[in-house]
Design goal:
About 60% of the residues lie in helices and about 5% in strands. It has about 375 residues and is mainly alpha-helical.
Length: about 375
Amino acid sequence: MPSTYYLSYIPWCSPNSYKFDTEFEREIKREVFKIVRRGKEFGTWGYFIRAFFYIGLYCYLDYLWTTAKPTSIGLAVAFGVAQALIGLNVQHDANHGAASKKPWVNDLLGFGADCIGGCKWNWMCQHWTHHAYTNHNEMDPDSFNAEPLLLFNDYPMGHPARKFYHKFQALFFLPVLSGYWLSMVLNPQVFTLKHAGADSVGIRMDNDFLKNRRVFATLLRITYIYLNIVRPIYNGGSNNVLTTVFHILVMGGAESLTLASLFALSHNFEHVDRDPTKVKRESGEPICWFKSQVETSSTYGGFIAGALTGGLNFQVEHHLFPRMSSAWYPFIAPKVREICAKHGVRYAYYPWVWQNFVSTVKYMHQAGTGSNWLKPLSGAN
C-alpha cells in the first residue's frame, strides 16, 4: 500500500521524519480491509462504467472540437470540462495502479493524462513524491508549483518567498489557476526533462525512466497540440483566427478551473497541517505517516461528488490508500472518520463542496497575509 513504498523510491530523502506501524495505522488498515478485502481494492464494474462514459463523452466532444467550422464558446466549455473529467476519473486511478490489478489496463488508461495536455510519465514522477511528503514545504513539489504567483505554504513573516501582492491572493487565485492548462500544454518538460517544481525538491526528471519515454511523450504532446489547437485554427479560417484562439483559451480555462480548483481544495483549508514534520524538528520524535496524511487533506461530499471527481473529494481516504480504486472510498470513509476520532486525529470533513471552497479562500488569505504568524493583540510576529 502507501507509506514506505513511496518513500523508498526517493533516494535523496530520508523517511526518518515519519514512523510506521503505529497503533493508528494498524487499526485503520485492519478495519478498512474488513470492508474491502485485499486483492479486491481495484476498480469495480461501477468504476469502469463511469470511466468509459467519460471516455466516450471526451471522444465525442473532441471529434466535434477538431471538425467544427467554426468553434463556439459552448463547445469550448463542454470540451474543457470533458477533459477535466478524464483527468479526475480515468487517468488518476490508472496512474496510481488502482484501476485494475492488470498493469496493462492501468498503463492504457493512464494515457488519459496525455489526452488532456499532460504527460503520464512526468506526472507519475512528481505526483508520487507529493503523496510521500504531502504538504511538506521542502519536499512536496505541489507545495510551491504556483510560486511566485501564489503561496500555498504558510511561510513565516519575512520569508523571501513572500511578496506584497500575496496579501490579495484570495482575490486572484482562481484567475491564476485558470492558466493551469496553458502552463501544462506549453511546458517544455517533455522535451527538456526539466521542471521547476521538481527541481526545487531535487527530483531528477532526466532519469532513465523518463529518458526512455521522451520520444513517445513528445509525439503525444505534438499530436495533442495539432488536434486541439492547430486544427481548430485551420478549420476556422484566416478570418476567424482571433475568435478561435479565444475559444481555445476558454476551453483551456474550463479544464483548468475544473481540475485546479478541486486540487486546491484538497490540501489548503483552515487548520490544515502545512508543516507535518514540525514535531520531528522540535522534539526529535518522528510522526505517524498515516496521521500526517489525514491532517494534511480534506474530504467533502459523498458518493455523487465522488462519481464526478473520481474520488478526489475523498482526499483523506485517497492519501491513506492511494492504490485503492476511488470506487471504494464512499464505503470506507465512515470507518476512517470513526477511527480518526478514536485516536484524536484531526479529520477535515465538509458536507458540501462550497464549504470546503470557502475554507480554502480563507486559508489562501491567511497564508497570503501571514495572519497565522501574528501574536494576538500585539500584531507582532
